[in-house]
């Protein structure tokens, strides 16, 4: 009976450790990514749109449209959720990556500390500081009970996209990984922007912006980490409408999160170690 108990307890742990070793030792070839521009083509301008700081960011757009420098929380979203995508894109050399964070999340009053943390994280993820924008608008404040305006989000995305000739947008899906209403609002704002962009493109005969959303998974998949990565890799075939991004080295995702010392609490350490988003991102194209 005792041996059965030990098997039940330690078998999943051994499976997880084995999967972690396999995933850590394997680094998928970046050149096989289907959404990378072909040789001779111009670099693609990519915009990652997130809800809260703990990412990488540099400039804040206030509602009066004056510019300020602040680098707050953005990297937490990027480190916790989007690190595999960013590490892959920045390593390819054929993408210029920008980040748009729709709130500065200064609720705890640690803005100046997180500025330095964010600078360190941005540098680690190879995203230039001038490529990160954080919005500080009274209508887009961090909170579960704050309703964000989809039209305002769409306008902000349009402004960034126009200024920087954005070719591709990456963001949350309709559930927003954790179900946070701000995440969901980001998805809805991107949808509204894409709808408006499609109408404008048809009228002006311009090119449409393609958009990809990060797949939300259930609790078991989310916290099985490298085990789910191996399963997904085995059964997944990259297509024009879906793609898997790997971090290459899970330690890189973990190190990026470690740059945010004020956020590096014990439960976030567990999240980063066990979360599938540390190891892999599954992106799906927005329907055209």
UniProtKB/TrEMBL annotation:
Stretch forming the signal peptide: 1-25
E.C. number: 3.5.1.89
Protein name as catalogued: N-acetylglucosaminylphosphatidylinositol deacetylase
Keywords: Signal
Family in the record: Belongs to the PIGL family.
Broadest EC class assigned to this enzyme: hydrolase
Record-level Gene Ontology MF annotations: N-acetylglucosaminylphosphatidylinositol deacetylase activity
Annotated organism of origin: Ceratopteris richardii
